[in-house]
Automatic annotation (TrEMBL):
Keywords: NADP, Oxidoreductase
Descriptive protein name: Glyoxal reductase
Keyword field contains Cell division: no
Record bears the keyword Iron: no
Amino acid sequence: MLTNLKETVTLHNGVKMPRLGLGVFKVSEGEEVVESVKAAIRNGYISIDTAAIYKNEEGVGQAIKESGIAREELFVTSKVWNSDQGYETTLQAFETSLNLLGLDYLDLYLIHWPGVDKYKDTWKALEKLYKDGRVRAIGVSNFQIHHLQDLMSDCEIKPMVNQVEFHPHLTQKELLAFCKNEGIQMEAWSPLKQGQLLEEPVLTKIAQKYNKSVAQVILRWDLQHDVVTIPKSIKEHRIVENANIFDFELTQEDMENIDSLNQDSRAGSHPDTMRVGF
């Protein structure tokens, strides 16, 4: 059992969030997602990140049920999709997600993308869900600094988490500094840039030095930047390998060398131009 997977960060409302979890983006509903989530839980993972648009919440819920682990030991995240943004529609979307997952509450609920004009109404719905005790923490995903500033200018509860694309080709230094300053926990989706970084020579060299894989080096880099990370895999040996990052530490020089790989290059959409589903 990989007990270090219990390591947490404390969100600004006191809730403890695991520093490493399993992401299930592009993991197919049915056996594929059920087996990958069960493999993760079997190997000590306690954090699972899904979203309405992934269309696999039901499978995640089935895996949680079949794993036999107590609900309160897990940290489950889902997200409201763009087409459901708005106050009433977000409340309905939350109920749908909860029913599919077969859970009584979520640990974290996020606005998936900012869009243009509805995220403040959506946020009011998240604040209500939080105050009603339906979710232990609320946050956003893919928000830039200007989105966060706009949201915080008149929100009642500050976001606890901002989940963004973050990897050595997209280091988001200004955003990370802003979130740290505001007490918003940053979380990395696509930490391996969907596999595009695994042949990067600088990373390969550092990995050889520590007798680790490139993926392990990147995930360790996340942790040392105080960024929560949720690598996706459907292979059990890879799920185990991704978690084996607590027994080494990158030097300051390694960290700087990895930081220098930044290209402001994305695998996904840019938050300012993402309009799908709105």
